[in-house]
Amino acid sequence: MEEAPHESRGASKLNDAAVADLLEFLRIDVELEPACADREETSCSKNVTRKQRNWERRLEVKRCKRKEEKQRKKLNRQNKDVNELQLSKRVIKAITKERLEEARAAGLRLCVDFSMTDRLSAKEISRLAGQIRRLYGSNKKALQPFHIFLTEFKEDSLLCKECVRMNDGFLNYLIDVTEESWFHLFPSEDVIYLTPDASEALEYVEEDKVYILGGLVDETIQKKISYTRAKELGIRMARLPIDEYMVKRPNPKNYHSKILAINQVLEILLAFRDTKDWTKALVAGIPPGKGYMLASAASTDGINSQEEL
User: What is the rounded distance in angstroms from the CA atom of residue 286 to the CA atom of residue 42?
Assistant: First the structure.
């Protein structure tokens, strides 16, 4: 009975030792677990980094491909636009040529009379050459171009030399150029000489008539040159109906002129053929600097002025 306590103390020591071993084991596991976690985290981090780099490389490749594709499409569009532009120019040129050829075959005839150029100065000749260029340019753009004649147009004249010098492609213009007089080309009953000094106002543009313009410029100080020539030949004369549809525009210099350049007269005739309206035609061809305005516009201005008062 006396040894029992001793045995109990031995068992207690054994139990304490077991508990200590268990705690030591647990301590080791607890210490080992973070280390393992760190290794796994490091391994995971490397995998993520590698995947991210691979993804960034693929993304960069895609960006480069998209950029190249955009550049390729842009280049294709530019080439297409250039081809279409060239095609359009060719088509427009072909259509223009066809219209002018049709006009030369059966179009309304307009003739410029250059029989009076010997009265013009060298400066006026140069201006006349510029008017011929603009005359042809307006006729080319028209839906219903005129058949244009240049009569008494001498090859060795200063005017011809100026036209060749100033006007690109003048020798290839789709017009009829002759040294003959219009008086010998057309029946006199078919001719209407357009001059601002005529008493008769032009009412219509008739398809079977030939309209003659004097090859003069507005700088010339000699009055009624074309009027006198037409009257001597007994040719019917007419003027544009400026007085019937327009009034003088007030201006500081009190300048008003009905003398128009040959290209301006053509533009008026072309506009009238298209619109059958003299008000629209006159506005299309007469610049404001001539000192005239439509009578209807003047009436409106007067009403507005009275309202302001």
Answer: 90
Residue ranges of the chain whose pLDDT lies below 70 = 1-44, 78-87, 218-222, 299-309
Reduce the secondary structure of 31-60 to three states and give it as a string. Answer: HHHHHHHHHHHHHHHHHHHHHHHHHHHHHH
Residue 201 DSSP label: B
What is the maximum alpha-carbon separation in the chain? Answer: 175
Kindly report, residue by residue over 124-154, the tens digit of the pLDDT.
999 999 999 999 999 999 999 999 999 999 9
What's the pTM? 0.69
Alpha carbon separation from 297 to 236, 238, 249, 280 (Å, rounded): 32, 25, 10, 12
Residues in Cβ contact with 249 at an 8 Å cutoff, skipping those fewer than 6 apart: 256, 288, 291, 292, 293, 298
Q: Are strands 246-248 and 292-294 parallel, antiparallel or unpaired?
A: antiparallel
B/e letters for 165-186, b = 16+ CB within 10 Å, e = fewer, are: eebeebeebbbebeeeebbeeb
CA 165 to CA 125: how far, in whole Å? 12
Secondary structure class of 70 (helix, strand, coil): helix
Q: What is the CA radius of gyration of the chain?
A: 48
51-74 confidence digits (pLDDT tens) = 777 777 777 877 877 887 887 777
| 122 close to 219: Cβ distance less than 8 angstroms | no
Rounded CA separation 227/193 (Å): 8
Would you call 237 helix, strand, or coil by DSSP? Answer: strand
Rounded (5°) CA angle 156-139-112: 40
